[in-house]
Amino acid sequence: MTHNQYIKLFNDIGDVHEYINTFGNGDIEKYTNNEDTSKYGQTLWVNVLPKTINETTQNKDYVIWVMDFVNEDFSNEDEVLSDTERTFDDIIAILRSDYYNDFFIIEQISKPEPFVERYGTRVAGWTSTITFKEKFENDVCQAVISEIPTITI
């Protein structure tokens, strides 16, 4: 799958999940620096990390955040952590669905970590890195080239 396909998949998960209000991707500062009130409610945010390529497989890593705003008096902090944890778990369950086995498998999920006030805002939630394992077609015939470049000695 391409990066665009992963972003669309995460976006689509955000669209169909009843608790996710906002989806975004890229560096987390794009989210935390935006004071737009439309981000109130749970947000699914993802960012691509480096990938690894082996002879027959490749692993693509994405860090995900599921977060929501905490009241100024922090009275709903535990509620936000509880609700975003449930949504985080739902996302993992969706991605582990047999439906996606022809495209990828979840190779690894780093230990999900709760956070509160981490990004200079009153957001709280859960974050983790997901490693997607895919087949890697190590075949020059699949390259979009007109010919193999030659080497002149």
Characteristics of this structure?
alpha+beta; seven-stranded mixed β-sheet; elongated; 153 residues
Shape: elongated
How is the quaternary structure best described?
single chain
User: Alpha-carbon distance between the termini?
Assistant: 38 Å
Strand content: 25-35%
What radius of gyration results from the CA coordinates? 19 Å
Low-confidence stretches: none
Using DSSP, what is the number of strands? 7
Please tally the helical runs, counting DSSP H or I stretches of 4 or more residues.
3
The succession of helices and strands, N to C, reads HEHEEEHEEE
Mean pLDDT: 89
Short description:
By secondary structure, the chain is α+β, with helices and mostly antiparallel strands. It has helices spanning 3-16, 28-32, 77-95, and strands at 20-25, 42-48, 52-53, 57-69, 105-109, 113-116, 123-135.
What topology emerges from the helices and strands here?
Blueprint lengths: L2 H14 L3 E6 L2 H5 L9 E7 L3 E2 L3 E13 L7 H19 L9 E5 L3 E4 L6 E13 L18
Parallel strand pairs: 1-2
Antiparallel strand pairs: 2-4, 3-4, 4-7, 5-7, 6-7
